[in-house]
Write a structure and sequence with these properties.
Blueprint: E1 7-8, H1 10-17, H2 21-29, E2 37-39, E3 42-46, H3 47-56
Antiparallel strand pairs: 1-3, 2-3
Helix pairs in contact: 1-2
Length: 64
Amino acid sequence: MAAPRSLATPDEVAMFLGLPTQTLAQWRYLAKGPRSIKVGRHVRYRWTDVERWLDRNARGDAAA
C-alpha cells in the first residue's frame, strides 16, 4: 500500500498559490477555491484536491 500524502494547512496552500491565507478563508466561506476538509477543529487541504482545482481552473495559452 502506498504511503498517504500529507495534508496541507491553509498557510501552506496559500504560500503555494501565492495568496494571502485570508483569501482561502473567504473562499471557504463562499464555497470557492480548492476543496477543504475539517480535521477536528482544524482546516486542512489534500494536495490532490489543490492540484485538481488548479487543473480545472487553468487557462490555455491559446486564448492569449
